[in-house]
Design goal:
CATH class of the largest domain: Alpha Beta
Structural class: alpha/beta
Mean pLDDT: 94
Shape: globular
Largest sheet: 7 strands, mixed
CATH architecture of the largest domain: Alpha-Beta Complex
Strand content: 15-25%
Distance between the termini: 33 Å
Length: 230
């Protein structure tokens, strides 16, 4: 389908305030990060997969599962560190290699499969878009929300009419689910951003959009995987 070279980056910090060692906690018999590693390695279109981590344990584990690894400096491994500088760091380490697209696959989205990845690539490549972000439709339309003004009175989040407008007449809205980000490498290196003026949505189901952040999320993930792989 495409001869484009695509680099997949899996960012996996060793620390986590919410759940210590979150990325290597076993779920359905595998460390959390391996669900993402396996999806990336099974992809038809990914040319190389790199795990970026500050943790030697995660790096060694990732190598055993078949990925290449890059040690992340401490300043890019704090709780406030963003993904974009991590991606830039990886690309700089691979400066002699050329990739048309760079993809971010967060290990906290374990229900994203290789089929999802490949479908996202097909959606983006051969269009004039420069980026793609996986999304899902929210259960409750965000344009129906209120906020309060400086006097404490309710105001529509965007418009005072939207909270009373039938859902069917409101514009479609999407939430990012954190599972798949793809951007043209040259555009990313110029802007340092995953979102561009020409970003396509790749819609996924709410179930597949589960983002692992709490113990409750792990419990829900275990139930979904037990149902899927029973």
């Amino acid at each position: 389908m495409t001869n484009k070279r695509i680099l997949a980056i899996i960012p996996a910090r060793g620390g986590s305030k919410g759940i210590p060692d979150k990325n290597i906690i076993e779920v359905a018999g595998k460390p959390l990060i391996t669900w993402t590693i396996e999806a990336a390695l099974k992809s038809e279109f990914i040319s190389k997969t790199i795990v970026s981590s500050d943790s030697d344990i995660i790096l060694e584990m990732s190598k055993k599962y078949g990925t290449e690894t890059i040690k992340r400096p401490a300043n890019l491994a704090s709780d406030s560190a963003r993904s974009e500088p991590v991606m830039t760091h990886v690309l700089k380490q691979l400066k002699d290699e050329n990739y048309d697209y760079v993809m971010l696959l967060q290990p906290t989205s374990p229900l994203r499969t290789s089929d999802d990845i490949d479908a996202a690539v097909k959606t983006l490549v051969n269009t004039d878009a420069t980026a793609l972000i996986s999304v899902y439709k929210p259960q409750h339309h965000p344009l129906k929300a209120f906020k309060t003004d400086d006097k404490g009175f309710l105001k529509g989040l965007v418009s005072d009419e939207y909270p009373f407008t039938p859902r069917q007449k409101l514009p479609k809205t999407f939430y990012p689910n954190g599972a798949i980000y793809i951007v043209k490498t040259d555009v990313f290196l110029k802007t340092g951003k995953l979102f561009t003026a020409k970003t396509l949505p790749f819609e996924m189901s709410a179930e597949k959009s589960l983002d692992i952040d709490t113990k409750t999320d792990f419990e829900m993930l275990s139930k979904i995987l037990a149902k899927t792989y029973k």
